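Record type: ASSEMBLY
Status: queued
Input:
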Amino acid sequence: MYAYVIRRLLQFALVLFLGSLAVWAFVFALPGDPATVLTGPDAAPAELAATRERLGLDDSVVQQYVTWLGNAVTGDLGDSYFSAETVRSTLLDTVPATGQLAAFAMALTLLIGIPVGTVVALRPRSWAGRAADAYLTAGLAIPAFWLGLLLIIVFAVQLGALPAASDYVPLFSDPAGAVRATILPALAVAVHASSVLARFLAASLHEVMGRDYIRTARAKGVPERYVVRRHALRNAALPTVTVVGIQLGGFLGGTVVIEAVFNYPGLGRLLYTSIGERDYAVVQGGVLFVVAAFLCLNLLVDVLYAYLDPRIRLA
Amino acid sequence: MTDAALAKTPAGPPAGAPRFAAARRFARSRSALVGAAGLLLLVLLALLAPWAAPFDPNEQGADNLLGPSATHLLGTDELGRDIASRVIHGTRASLLVGFGAAALGALVGVPLGLVAGYVGRWADAVAMRLTDLLLAVPGILLALVIIAVLGPGRLNLVLAIGIGAVPEFARLTRAATLSIRERDFVVASRGMGAPAADTMVRTVLPNVLGPILVQLVVTASLAVVVESGLSLLGLGTPPPAPSWGGMLQEARSYLHQSPWYGVFPGLCLAFTVFCLDRVGRGLQRAFGTAVAGGAREGTI
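Status: finished
Output:
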């Protein structure tokens, strides 16, 4: 187990390093250097030179990267180009909002996805199985942002029951308000994600139900519900753990369009508006955060998986 | 890892399978045929858009934000343009970018995976860390950043979405290559002194085409959604060219005046994804393969 964890940690560190390099290099791939973006097209040469000096753009490339990385490790991601805030505080303003949306979306995904996947796998011919299969088919086809738009039309515009633009209301200060503000975007994300999860779980469960140990369990007289709960679901849940990890990582950095549709003040909308404003310091810091968070989650999931399934560590 | 856990049968057709057996298996599934028929309809609409559409998609009129009527089947938009005609013409942007991005992903990812799986060692390590890196960024975010660098436009859109599709093709091809590289016919090719490149292209590649084809369809359905998402953000297909995502973006401003505006472009999008999914599933069953990357769907 230790050998596996160490191997996985080294891999994690290497990819994170490559990621930081790519994120940092991104600004250099842009037309014009940061100083030109910052000072605007009509800047005097002296002003441009001063800005270049201040940003350290005259140092060697290696020196610049090392300085940037050193600062990033200590949590200093530089200053926003346009607002008076640091990138760090700008990010910290939006991360809790996206975290809350991700948590809501994941809770709904699991609440819907697990029963749907189980019913599809175990009772495909019953009315519940057919309904679940129909849900799964529709959920896979309907893009989250379109569903979000439809939800806004129905619940906000027509019924006036929920807000069309979602503010961030922290769950702990106002639980009811938080649910009202987050439920629509979370549902829009969860319908699709739960369909993906359900399909994985159903495939996995279907395969497990044909295994010899299930037949053995039935043959020795284990009641069917225990066969399903103790023998089948536990084994089928394993590959699904990985899917949930990947989805959660996606919720943290990939709900850009949903946040834009609901005008939700999260990380995705921040990155989108920063790209529009050419505030590349924020984009750089934000993408680095997303990459780091995603890699940490992946590491966590892989270690968890290896802990739950000894076969992985030995492979 | 997920793919390996879900894979039921090794990649490639079963030994001794007659040619076109996969096509026959595909044709036996009604659900796959429904998807294929829908896809054919969409392709025809895209090709014949100027004849199929009742109006010029960019022709403006005085009657704006109309509801559905006999003249304008789906109503008109804020500039008085016929929504039905714009939806029909929008098929072009979706399919072009969708299949273009998938093809680009395959064009880069398949050789990468082939070399990683066949050559192994350092080539494998480099290729896999590269895919790890690309997989660590959500597809839509990666596309957004690439568009920020390259600027908008249809070709850049294909590039931006296609790059995100590379790792899945690379991983899939690598896994399939690994599973057959020690099989007798590959060893025989090596043993006869064929250069590595020759063995890879002529002996290994034809036997891993099945899963690659499946992945091509799956990726296209993802790319169609990402294209619409980017257009919704105003970074996709540049206006005034009609695109479903762009129409959804415009519809957002008129939710009160004309709530039906965004319904049909989204429905077409869902129909396209549905058809591609059916075709993908049919191919998957026909070739007996698992698909990579399904879990990355939908986080948009």
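Annotation: The radius of gyration of chain A is 24 Å.
Annotation: Chain A is about 80% helix and 0% strand.
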